[in-house]
Amino acid sequence: MLENLTFVEHFQIWLRAFLILSLFSFLYKDNIFYKFSEHIFAGLSAGYYVGLIWRSVIVQQLINPMFDNSEWWLVFPGILGVLMFARLKPKWTWVSRVSLAFVIGNTAGIYLISSLHGMIFKQIAPMMVSVNQGDGLEKILLALLVIVGVITTLVYFYFSKEHKGALGVTARVGIWFIMIAFGAHFGYTVMGRISLLIGRAEFLFYQWGGSLTQIF
Amino acid sequence: MNRRPLLATIRILAATIFFSGFPILSAWGQTDDGSVFRLDRLPVLIFALVFSAAVLLYTRWAKQGKPLFIRKIAGIDAVEEAVGRATEMGKPVLFIPGIADVEDIETIAGLSILGRVAKIVAQYDTPLSVPVRYPMILAAGQEVVEQAYMEVGRRDAYDKDMVKYVAGEQFAFTATVNGWMMRERPAANIYMGAFFAESLLLAETGNAAGSIQIAGTARPEQLPFFIAACDYTLMGEELYAASSYLSHEPLMLGGLKGQDFVKIIIIVAIILGAVLATLGAGEWYHNIFDVG
User: Fold this and answer.
1) Interface touch B102/A107, C-beta < 8 Å
2) Would strands B188-192 and B163-165 be described as parallel, antiparallel, or unpaired?
3) Can you list the positions of beta strands (E) in chain B?
4) Degrees (nearest 5) of the Cα angle A42, A196, A44?
């Protein structure tokens, strides 16, 4: 049961309920209420992100460290950022490519090493498991499952040969492993989505319903 | 004496050492004892050297015209078919390069595929719409699409509003794109890049709008949704392979073949490790891969 709500609290609950129902109305078909909510949502998020980036990036990560801590080297990323504004004038668009090239090149370079270290080495090491009789049947089966699963999945993603014969059979086993993993992911995520839906339904029934009862 | 192969090998090795030297530079001064090198990570450097050498070697072979085979990937061939369908129907093609920023490697793969799709679209004179979530993707996307139009000699048909910023918030972006899909009813929706909780919302709406849908992502938790709701799905590394497959450029092919070479090394390393562990003699070998 809700406490006695103020006018502002009633208004907030009704606004939220209206926006939720407007967005849900898309399940029927595209309509004016959905369009209204969609535009509010997109406009608010654009405005919010301008404020967020100004505060958390420009001020906190550029201006403050430069002027408070004398980290003057930050002028270089600052310049790269400013170069992006060259896109506003078509004649100078090419200038912004320097910043783009810097970011994209860095991304590829950083990912190469971090993937080798974090995703390949860190995953190869735990695969080296013993399948010795002394380890017990359960451990042996689990170890075999992991080794076979990883190797067959890797074979599925081998592009240099046609998947025929033994390679084809191995790749098919791999796709089975992949699909079983996807099935588990699907179920897990659907459960999460249902809990989100329950959250919205609870809001509509208890909070909006409570507000309705108090008003009428 | 023909010195070209020797010089080529030296160039490949020099380039490999140069590019693989960056992890050493990045580790400068980061160790607890203040030393420059983290020797415990030496295996990663060696692996990076081998990988880089393999990529450079395959790239060289591709440039020399040696036939490098890549197996057929169903979803990729469907891209051209989907654009053709859009042309026949006179409806637009929707391409979403994921919802992550440009620091995500999946986004870069998505942009690379966008370049190829834009070329096909430009040739067929089909409308293209690329909604994006981040300003950097907006800039990169516009560059990629403009370049594609220029390469096929259709610079005049390029409109920078083909790539448009929609919203920074994940679900605001999704709500806007979903609304657009139901109003414009694109003939083909292509989702290539990093997707999160919005994957099923986008794919189901596209399905309801009657579009042919091709998706590609390396996010295992989103792939089931794309598989369920799209006509074709590129899973994991197929997304990265797609750009090489579509372009057939030596550089891209070299990268893909280099990755395949590394996969063989990984498979052999795992089998050898498991055999040594079973024989009880694998600790030294395990330690090579168990880097800090």
Assistant:
1) yes
2) unpaired
3) 93-96, 128-132, 163-165, 188-192, 212-217, 232-235
4) 15
Helix, strand, or coil here: B99? coil
- Cβ-nearest to A129 among B69, B225, B277: B277
Distance, CA of A215 to CA of B21 (rounded, Å) = 70
Cβ of residue A116 closer than 8 Å to a chain B Cβ: yes
Of A199, A209, A204, nearest to A1 (Cα)? A209
Mean pLDDT of A166-183: 95
Q: Does domain B74-247 have CATH number 3.40.50?
A: yes
- Residue B82 forms contact with A (CB below 8 Å): no
Supply angle C-alpha B104, B107, B112, rounded to 5: 135
CA-nearest of B95, B93, B101, B105 to B168 is B101
Distance, in Å, from the CA atom of A134 to the CA atom of B39, rounded to the nearest integer, reads 35
How many whole angstroms separate alpha carbon B83 and alpha carbon B128?
10
Cα separation, B262 vs A175, in Å, equals: 20
Task: Please tell me the pTM assigned to this model.
Answer: 0.88
Cα torsion A187, B132, B78, B242: sign: negative
Token duo for residue A43: 């406009």
C-beta of residue B181 within 8 angstroms of C-beta of residue B207: no
pLDDT by 10-residue block (mean), chain B, 292 residues:
59 57 51 73 90 93 89 85 92 97 90 93 95 94 95 94 94 96 96 95 96 95 94 93 81 89 95 92 88 80
Q: Domain ranges in chain B?
A: 4-67+254-289, 74-247
Rounded to whole angstroms, how far apart are CA atoms A37 and B272?
A: 58
Transcribe A34-103 into DSSP letters. HHHHHHHHHHHHHHHHHHHHIIIIIIIIIIHHHHHS--GGGHHHHHHHHHGGGGGSGGGGGGHHHHHHHH
- Percent of chain A at pLDDT exceeding 90: 74
Residue B212 vs residues A186, A189, B96: alpha-carbon distances, Å: 22, 25, 14
Structure tokens at B281: 């003699």
Report the pLDDT value the prediction gives residue B203, as an integer from 0 to 100: 97
**Which of A24, A39, A45, A53 best probes binding to B when mutated, by most B CB atoms within 10 angstroms?**
A45
- pLDDT score at B96: 98
